[in-house]
Amino acid sequence: MKLANRIITFVLVVALLFTGMGTTVEKVLNDVKLGLDLQGGFEVLYEVESLVDGQAITQSVLADTTTALNNRINAFGVSEPSIQIEGEDRIRVQLAGLADQDSARELLSSTANLTFRDVNDNILLDGTDLKEGGAAASFDQQNQPIVTLTLKDAAKFAEVTQKVMSMGAPNNLLVVWLDFEEGVDSYAKEKEKPPAEQKFQSAASVTQVLNTTDVMISGNFTVEETKNFASVLNAGSLPVKLTEIYSTSVGAQFGKDALNDTVFAGVVGVLLIFLFMLIYYRLPGFISIITLSVFTYLVLTVFNGINAVLTLPGIAAIVLGIGMAVDANILTAERIREELRVGHSVKDAYKLGSKQSLTAIIDAQLTTLLAAAVLFYYGTSSVKGFATTLIISILLSFVTAVWGSRMLQGLLVNSGYFNNPAWFGISRSKQHSLDEGITSLDLTTKFDKLDFVGNRKKFYAISTFILVAGIIVLGVFKLNLGIDFSQGTRVEIKSDTELVQEEVENYLVEIGFANDDVVISGDDHNIAVMRYKDDFSQQEVLDFSAQVKETYGHEPSLSTVSATVGKELAKNAIYALALAALGIIIYVAIRFEWRMGLGAIVSLLHDVFFIIVIFSMLRLEVDITFIAAVLTIVGYSINDTIVTFDRIRENIDRQEKITSKEELATIVNKSLRQTMGRSVNTVLTVIVVVIALIFLGAPSIQNFSIALLIGLITGIYSSICIAAQVWYSLKCREMDKKGTSVVKKEKKQWGSDEPQV
Predict the structure, then answer these.
(1) Given this model, what pLDDT does residue 750 score?
(2) Cα–Cα distance between 469 and 476 in angstroms, integer?
């Protein structure tokens, strides 16, 4: 019976979805908050030190400091700055979309310690004598820029001016200092310098007692300098000294180009996925296009709802999240196609396939979620953005790719208009009759000639060779560690014209930043990349940026990492990998059995090691995004492995009892062949996106994408040729030792239906 109302409901639901998205997508896109790597800006990690001997850096002191920093940032009109306390003595500041980065850095780190002194450097007044909000930029009678101050106590100022006046000319000067260093600075030394180089702000002659709260500070100020000076004073003196130990500065043009390139690469990759799904899976492919579109919209909507910031790795995470959602669709579609081949009707095949694929989807996504959570906990700011987006993507992919896809596909299947298996890519000639008693375990595949178990020793030999060769390669080449894991400064210079290596090197010598390791990159050869072994000081960063911008017309991108932070990032990266591996083996051991968990970890270590070796051989830089790529591969690889183990478990359940190694080998081989098509299709769809990111995406995530590509290829090999084979070998050893058979475990709730000995 055909039910037209199901078709009408489907059309209405889809129409409502796309109407809702179409009318709000522009607002959603406009509301997305871009990170500094997508719109320019800078990020600084400050180490907080006390200015007073014996003063402890408490959480209260840190809170006061962040308040003062926030007040200063407001002077620049930055929308939604990020200021976070990290640990016991650090503060991270992120300012995206800021045009004048140099002024902001100077303003933020200045302690703004205002003092009024005599010519002998004796302190007379300090910042505590200034009325709150009492500093303002103004003009004197000659229309010259000045700063006006409002003091709290007129009588105290009268006493001070009386004291200075009594010193007599030429010593009757009230000297205004900002950040006077005891034992280092002095008026006597500074007055010998040219006016433009003098550290004190002004030195006013006092010829009468001033019983007032109004003070004018004049000097060689520009209008902009008086505004900044007043902002610093109104923000209040910081109670501490701030030292930069990590910083990243991205020029606005770099951010714009990165955003355009990565979005374009993502769109190309996703469209190719849509095309593949439609051609290969047909009706399920059409449904997946709808749900994947909804998925992308929801990811951005939720992202805006939690006020998250979208970074460059975050865009990659959205695209990869689409790959995860595709995997759920492919897994369900493949199970439906199997049931159709067995001889079930379209309706029955849909019900059975949807039910049977659910466990594998949940297990695979939960393990990937575990890796993303570890990455979020141990990652730095941009990597946290990647992890946040990946977590959101995984959760929403379950809503759309599982619940949404099944709801929409159920409407079409139950309408009665799609009873031909051709709608699912299965011809009637490939269908058996239910009367034949054929099960999915008996179905032929394109890979039936492959004997995975019989060749396991060859796989072990190949992997052993890779291990030994990899150790030798690492011993010879070592890793090309980026500044994230060592220390130093990485710089990218962008020009409107083609750059020549020798000319750039000569220019760097001229400006006092010599470097003979300049690499020219970019499609138009207009980007120069270089590394310095030492981390730049704040002043060096400011000087370098100012000179490069004046010469090439663009703010350079510059990252500097101290040795302390580099060691911490390396330590956290190792922790992240170790915890992810431990969590995965525990989860797989609980859901399946410990031997499968061990097989999964062996295959994961195989993948990670192979990626490291390739990066060592190709001299590709290993930075913090490399860790993000490795953990992503951990998620994908365990995804493949769990789907394989889930099929092995299911096929053992169907046999109910396996008494010989030969029977077990048959089960493992058939399980691997049955999941091979799904694994290949899933990895291919993600590889399409990764290749698009490599060739069309921003250069800053190229190494990230290369690591993903290597991991995806090795992941499919290890999950089939290593993980399952390790489990088979361990199971055979147990059968030899105990003389028992592998039997089906009684079905219980989800999470406890694994085979046991």
Answers:
(1) 42
(2) 11
Single-letter amino acid code for the residue at 274: F
Could you read off the pLDDT of 393-440 as tens digits, one per residue?
Answer: 888 988 898 899 999 999 999 998 999 999 999 988 888 988 888 877
Give the pTM: 0.75
User: What is the amino acid identity at position 279?
Assistant: I
Q: What is the DSSP string of 227-263?
A: HHHHHHHHH---SEEEEEEEEEEE-HHHHHHHHHHHH
136-195 pLDDT tens trace: 888 888 888 888 888 888 889 899 889 989 998 889 888 888 778 788 889 999 888 888
pLDDT-based confidence at 747, cuts 50/70/90?
very low
Beta-carbon contacts of 112 under 8 Å, excluding residues fewer than 6 positions away, are: 127, 178, 179, 232, 233, 235, 236, 237, 238
What's the burial of 135, exposed, middle or buried (CB within 10 Å: 0-12/13-18/19+)? buried
Give me the numbers of helices (H) and strands (E) for the chain, helices first please: 22, 21
For every residue of 85-150, DSSP letters joined together read: EETTTEEEEEEET-S-HHHHHHHHH----EEEE-TT--EEEEGGGBPTT--EEEE-TT--EEEEEE
Cα dist from 107 to 73, 85, 114, 412, 543, whole Å:
8, 19, 14, 62, 15
Copy the structure tokens of residue 489: 């400064």
Among 754, 736, 734, residue whose Cα is nearest residue 745: 754
Residues facing residue 529 across a β-bridge:
492, 519
At 635 the three-state DSSP class reads helix
438: helix, strand or coil? coil
Structure tokens at 676: 């091979």
CA distance 656 to 217: 91
